[in-house]
Structure formats: C-alpha cells, structure tokens
Design brief:
The protein folds into three domains: 84 residues, Arc Repressor Mutant, subunit A (Orthogonal Bundle); 112 residues, Periplasmic binding protein-like II (D-Maltodextrin-Binding Protein, domain 2), CATH 3.40.190.10; 103 residues, Periplasmic binding protein-like II (D-Maltodextrin-Binding Protein, domain 2), CATH 3.40.190. It has twelve helices and twelve strands. Strands 3, 4, 5, 6, 9, 10, 11 and 12 form an eight-stranded mixed beta sheet that branches. Strand 7, helix 9 and strand 8 form a beta-alpha-beta unit. The chain is rod-shaped. The two termini are 37 Å apart. About 5% of the residues have low confidence.
C-alpha cells in the first residue's frame, strides 16, 4: 500500500518543482526527500518527474497522478477531521432499535428532538425489531441503543438497562357499546366481552391475559392486532374492545371511547438498553437523553424539527 507520507512529499515536490525548496517546506533534509520520491516511483513502476540540473518537472503521467493524489489527500484530511469529531461525540451515526410503543408513546421521537439541539449533524438509523432481536443486536454491536419491553437480566455480562416508561392502559370501547355509558366498570362487566388483543411482537407474551385473570376474569380474545392503531380501528368499527396505552389517547379515532380501569394492573413498560462497553461519546449522550426525563420533556417544548438525517428500517 502506498505510504500517505510519500504522497504528501510528492505533492510538495510537484508544486515547488525543486527538491530543495520542497524539503524546506516540509522541514526535512533534501536527501531523505529525494530518497522517498525515488522509492515511490520504484513502487509504482512509474517515472513521475523529468529531472535536470536546474529543476524537476512532472511527466505527463506524473500530472495525472498528481490530480488523483490531491483528491486522495483531501479525502484523507476530511476523514481525519471526521474521526476527531466522532471521538469528541460531535458528529457521527446512531443505530437505534425500537418496539412500536417507543414510537407511539413519544419516547423515541422526543429523545431525537433533544439530541438534535446539540448534535444537528447526527445520522440516525432506526430499526423496528423485537426485544430479543434488539438485545442480540447490542451484543453483536450492530445496535447502539435498544428500546425494549423487557430489560437485560441483572446478571447480564454484556448489557445494562434503565426503565424509561411504564405507560398505564385504558379500555377502548366502541362509542355505541353499552359499557361506554356506564359510570363504574367492574371485572364482571368485561368478562363476557369480545376482546381485540394487541401483541405487536412476542415481547407482550401473556401479560395481558395474566392481568385479567388476576382481576377476576378471563378475556375472550376473538381478534389479534399487530399494533395498537389497528386495534383502535377495529374497536371503532364495533368489532370488540381492547386495552390501549394511555399515551395513544390523543390518537383515538372517532367512534372510540376510552375509560380508566384502575383495578386492572396492566401497564406497558419500556426499557432502554445498551452495551456495558462503549467508547463512543455520542452513544453516551443519547443514553443520558433517554434516561433523564427532564431534558426529554423540555426538548419537546422547544424543538419541533426532526433529526437532519434519519433512516428507518
């Protein structure tokens, strides 16, 4: 592989058309400079200069090689500058995994807004994956941050986690449903209803059914929606009732009534997870945004734009 230092020497000699002046410019002796140019020509199998006692000039091939060398060195300088900015956490990219609730509840969009205030040039790639896939992505270092429904275990040797949300659930009823007008709802009221289950990933497991059993009834799940907005649409069509995160209440379509059922101990948790070993300041910055509720809330109020470059898978 060509030595970058030799390329810098070559450009200096080509621009000065004099080895002595180039040596002074580079703050080295003339003899080592001549030797480096000769070694470069030997490596390339190419004569770069026409030499005379008065001066040296580029050959035609040398002129072509000079143009490409300048382009390469410019890119090398930019790459070095980028590396330094990455090291300081000023720029770079983040690969973030998430489950749907992280987006629906506003946790991920709000955190990205806050991040953009101090890191406007960050490129973000978003990957909608199950919690298990995300945790494996963290282990393989293909993800920087994961937003999952279940955290890593306390004794996990690689990963750490922090709960960022525990969203209460609301009962979604069709507007014309008999229970929509009832002041107080009991477990018996819900026992004989047709339910629409919401299980975006296998992460949800049997948590909903278990919560209903603890409350005193077993839900009759007739339909299974892959995400909560689909469930809300089915509820609006009168096809059943469903439990929906409170964070989605503003997005309920016409024809849906939302009711609190405090005796049903069922919430939707969300955890941020990351690798224990992290040398990138940008990842640490975003982790702090996610795990500090104060800047996350304040960022939503003062910054309404999106990240400058976001790729969603």
């Amino acid at each position: 592989m060509i030595d970058i230092r030799q390329l810098r020497y070559f450009v200096a000699v080509a621009e000065e058309e004099h080895v002595g002046r180039a040596a002074e410019r580079l703050h080295i002796s003339q003899s080592p400079l001549s030797r480096q140019i000769a070694q470069l020509e030997e490596r390339l199998g190419l004569t770069l200069f026409e030499r005379s006692q008065q001066r040296i000039r580029l050959t035609r091939d040398g002129q072509t090689f000079l143009a490409e060398t300048r382009a390469l060195l410019t890119h090398a300088n930019r790459l070095e500058s980028l590396g330094k900015r990455l090291g300081r956490g000023e720029e770079g990219g983040l690969c973030i995994g998430y489950i749907e609730n992280a987006m629906h509840a506003g946790v991920l969009p709000n955190a990205l807004r806050v991040l953009r205030v101090d890191r406007p040039n960050v490129h973000v790639a978003l990957y909608n994956l199950s919690s298990a896939e995300q945790l494996e992505g963290l282990r393989q270092r293909s993800l920087d941050i994961a937003l999952v429904s279940e955290p890593p275990t306390d004794d996990d040797p690689d990963l750490l986690g922090f709960q960022v949300l525990d969203d209460p659930m609301l009962l979604a009823l069709p507007e014309q449903h008999p229970l929509a007008a009832k002041v107080v709802l009991s477990p018996q009221d819900l026992a004989d209803q047709e339910w629409i289950g919401v299980q975006p990933r296998q992460d949800a497991g049997d948590a909903f059914v278990s919560a209903c059993i603890r409350a005193g009834f077993t839900p009759d799940v007739r339909m299974q929606a892959s995400e909560p907005f689909t469930a809300l649409g089915l509820v609006a069509s009168g096809l059943g009732i469903a439990m929906i995160q409170k964070g989605l209440s503003r997005n309920a379509p016409p024809g849906v009534v939302l009711r609190e059922v405090p005796w049903l101990a069922f919430t939707t948790p969300l955890w941020a997870a990351w690798h224990r070993i992290n040398l990138r300041p940008l990842v640490e910055t975003f982790r702090k945004v996610l795990t500090d509720p104060v800047p996350r809330g304040s960022g939503l109020a003062r910054e309404g734009n999106s990240i400058s470059s976001i790729a969603v898978d």
